[in-house]
Amino acid sequence: MATQDVFIRTSSGLTRQISARDALMYSAMNPGLLYSLVYIVWAPAFYPGAHMGLAVLFVLMIFPIAGLYWYFSVSMPRSGGEYIYVSRTLHPALGLWACFMLSVTALSWTGQLQDWWIRWGLADAIRSVGISHNSKGWIDVANAIDQPIVRFLIGTGALLLTLWLFMKGTRAMMRVSYWAVAFAWLAVLILGLLVIVTGQAGFRDNFNRLSGADYNAILQAGKQAGALFKVGFVATLYAGMVYVNLNTLGQTFSANLAGEIRGVAKSQALALFGSLVMQMAIWFAAYMLVYAIVGTNFMQALDSLWLKGVHSLPPALQHAHTSSEPVPMLLIAFMTGSPILQLLFGLCFIVATWVSLAGLGFAPIRNVFAWSFDRLIPTKFSEIKTRYRAPVYSIVAVIVVAEVFLYLGIYSPAYSTAILYTIIAWFLGWIILGIAGIVYPYRRKELFEAGPPATQRRIGGIPVISILGFLTLVVSVGTEWAVGQPFFKGDASASQYLTVLGMAVIPVIIYVIAHFYHKSKGIPIKLQFSQVPPE
Fold first, then answer.
1. Is 491 a member of any domain?
2. How many domains does the chain have?
3. Is 533 domain-assigned?
4. pTM for this one?
5. Is 452 helix (H, G, I), strand (E, B) or coil?
6. For an engineered disulfide with 253, which of 19, 126, 363, 450 has Cβ 3.0 to 4.6 Å away?
């Protein structure tokens, strides 16, 4: 069979319709710009003494990884991201494995994290109105929304809306990305206004009046529960590596859409690096403004009390059906008595979160498309249908998987905890990517030398892409160490790794089946991995 005949068709069918600014907005909002309002509870609870404003600085560790993606995406500007890079550099099985780990992790969040905006955006915003106005009716509505069946139905409806958005094509996804960024900045502006209008003294007075507890008593109780009222460098480092760097995951997904991006070198540079700058600015502002209103030590105290158990929190912060994290969307009850600001702040979290979850599901569609284009899964998944140039079967597959994760997240508490550690799977994929970056100029010398001059730069005779690959490997291994701290200390069960183990086995099975199937048909599937797929 001729070399040019190894692919399913001579063109992918995707079109370059994403501008540089579209790519920037998509990459900026993908990880969830307002997830920081949840991590401000979790990170210091597990790493006492962590200061989340300072932890933002550790995003600098992600810049070399973004650089590696830039080099690869400019060298091989095709949809599929790390699957294309690793399969053409190391081995197709490793390419599928690394990309599968990232894709399923993203889809697990697309499903399970629908519950975040329902609980902390919708229910807690309504509950905050009830607390500040002493209204049982508002609190009852929030409690009704908190019921698992209600959250599952709302989440399912949101995934159906996501399905419709995906069917509308790439341009529709890019348009809603702007909404997510706009609402994230609006949330920051609201917090900035409340610093001026309410301040920490006003928050303390409102808390003492409405919460059923005393501000100073919470500080003492939190200290006894393990809160540290001083900044710890190691704790802040671990919090940054796990909870802040985790908040960047999905930022590189513009590379997975490279086959649809115009002016890929310029656009990817803006998307991959500009998005990190924007994320750092929003997170730093959000963290510091919340600390300014609530009080850094008080927030640390609440975090430690939450980890100790719901019963340890003030009565107003305890409610049925959920784990009652004292997130800012709930604490806004003590920041302002305005229901407009309370509900608007909740709406910011809802919009920024739902759109980000759609974005996290959108790139895996292109990954499934790429696997299908290489015949590792049925070719139906790479068929382009509808006038919006959408791969319908890939879209449906992604939404079905997300729905499964939504169900597990709500109805299986053990799984709900385990899914938090899928970051382990993500960085395992990046370890493979880092190795691919190191060896690419040597193992695939012809591809490296055929790339644009900018991708062939060297420092001290060593290709820059190899240096970035090494740094990606180091950061990924270091992050795995940081994520593993709760297991090493005995604060988390090693059984949580079972989710990651399942994710690691499935792509191996897929590849083995594809390999022997095509071998039996006499199709020289190995030949296609010697070249980059057609546009």
1. yes
2. 1
3. no
4. 0.92
5. coil
6. 363
